[in-house]
TrEMBL record:
Name this protein carries in UniProt: Zinc metalloprotease
PANTHER family with a match to the protein in the record: MEMBRANE METALLOPROTEASE ARASP2, CHLOROPLASTIC-RELATED, REGULATOR OF SIGMA-E PROTEASE RSEP
Localization annotation: Cell membrane; Membrane
Membrane-traversing stretches: 6-25, 169-194, 303-323, 344-363, 398-417
Alphabetic keyword roster: Hydrolase, Membrane, Metal-binding, Metalloprotease, Protease, Transmembrane, Transmembrane helix, Zinc
Predominant location: membrane
Organism, scientific name: Macrococcus hajekii
CDD domains: cpPDZ_EcRseP-like, S2P-M50_PDZ_RseP-like
Pfam families named in the record: PDZ_6, Peptidase_M50
UniProt xrefs under NCBIfam families: RIP metalloprotease RseP
């Protein structure tokens, strides 16, 4: 149960923040957003506020913001369909009535021949009363009437595709940007909760290099060889540079300085699937302080570390495709993320928040990949429009995005099946 709750919390937080970034910048740009969804598949909850329907859907595999003119909408009318319309005094259609749950007066019935709700904004058909062919334009304030609800039809100036490149770019980039902001905030929160490590020893691990060298609780580390140690992270930096040599460590004990010789243990640590790194450790835990300023610095450094580390993993992943080292074991789908979240949750809230921060960075970076159907792929179309002063051919864009979506769907199926086999049948 703990794993399920933790997964729902982490998944819901990451996706909600990502999609909220898109929604916020879309609305600021004047783009109509008919739906804001967390999850995919059938609706299990919905709430409408103003022109946007907020939904939670059954399958925890993502989310979306439906923007008018982004290619996600479907024309609900088909040739031969009989509908009712209501027009204003100018003869423009204000309501396209698709059900009988509203009682409108002075309506007309049409047998639809052709319709367009994106570019030309019209309905053409045969008037059922006069048998004449008519063509009506839509009013700026027009609605679909279906399932007892009013769904506004976006006029041209409120469609994503008709906005200038800059608001388009900001709207698309806002999702990953908000994931990076979330990760930074989580890292700072963790730093506040965990405290900032100092250079004073709090505990020496049994049978460790620190214990063998005679290091004691309360000792303050001042120097390694000729390198000053002003903060605990300096130890890691020095060890990464000089690795497993024997160091002359200057410590302060009971007000007096003392020099001891110490050699770190080298350990191979699994940092990712199919990737290990050597870690050099003295085997000690530092004392921690709690302040108002240090956690901001520590949190920012942790965020930078997660960002560079995950970016290097992504680069390695794509490099492996061309070098022949690629394996689906290098990827995690919803099942794998759930199982890992379950393990991390058992370690406590700090570990879970750190995990959420890493996943948030990962989600932001992955969405910026130049793959059609992801934010990065759509940003490329916007950059093309900004450079060449014209949008990508609509048919070509739809075909490329569709191909990208099919590719991602295939990858998701393969990764999920691989996760199921790995976690449930091995």
């Amino acid at each position: 149960m703990l794993g399920i709750i933790a997964f729902i919390f982490v998944f819901g937080l990451l996706v909600t923040v990502h999609e909220f970034g898109h929604l916020l910048f879309a609305k600021r740009a004047g783009i109509m957003c008919p739906e804001f969804a967390i999850g995919m598949g059938p609706k299990i909850f919905s709430y409408k506020r103003n022109e946007t329907l907020y939904t939670i859907r059954l399958l925890p595999v993502g989310g979306y913001v439906m923007m008018a003119g982004s290619g996600m909408e479907q024309n609900p009318l088909t040739a031969g369909q009989v509908i009712s319309v209501k027009r204003n005094e100018a003869g423009e259609v204000t309501h396209v009535i698709l059900d009988d749950q509203h009682q409108f007066r002075q309506i007309e019935q049409l047998e639809v021949e052709e319709s367009d709700f994106e570019d030309e904004l019209f309905i053409q058909g045969i008037d059922k009363y006069t048998n004449e062919r008519v063509r009506y334009m839509l009013a700026d304030d027009a609605y679909f009437v279906r399932e007892g609800d009013l769904v506004q039809i976006a006029p041209r100036h409120r469609q994503f595709k008709n906005k200038k490149p800059l608001p388009k770019f900001l709207t698309l980039f806002a999702g990953p940007l908000f994931n990076f902001i979330l990760a930074l905030v989580l890292c700072i929160i963790v730093a506040f909760m965990a405290g900032t490590p100092t250079t004073t020893v709090d505990k020496v691990m049994d049978d460790s290099p620190a214990a063998r060298a005679g290091l004691q609780n309360g000792d303050t580390i001042k120097q390694l060889d000729n390198d000053k140690v002003n903060k605990f992270s300096d130890l890691k930096d020095i060890l990464e540079k000089s690795k497993d040599k024997t160091y002359a460590m200057t410590i302060e004990r009971d007000g007096q300085e003392k020099v001891i010789n110490i050699k770190p243990d080298a350990q191979e640590i699994q940092v990712a699937k199919n990737k290990t790194e050597m870690s050099y450790q003295f085997g000690l835990y530092p004392e921690k302080t709690f302040s108002l300023t240090e956690p901001f610095i520590a949190g920012f450094k942790t965020f930078l570390y997660y960002s560079t580390f995950i970016f290097s993993l992504i680069v390695g992943l794509f490099t492996s495709i061309f070098t022949g080292g690629f394996s689906f074991d290098m990827l995690n789908g919803p099942v794998g993320i759930y199982k890992n979240t379950e393990k991390v949750a058992s370690l406590g809230i700090i570990a879970l928040l750190n995990w959420a921060a890493m996943l948030s960075v990962n989600l932001g970076l992955m969405n910026l990949l130049p793959i059609p159907a992801l934010d990065g792929g759509r940003i490329l179309f916007v950059l093309y429009e900004a450079i060449f002063r014209k949008p990508v051919n609509k048919k070509a864009e739809v075909a490329i995005i569709t191909a990208g979506a099919i590719f991602l769907f295939f990858v998701m199926i393969m990764v999920t099946w691989n996760d199921i086999q790995r976690y449930f049948f091995n």
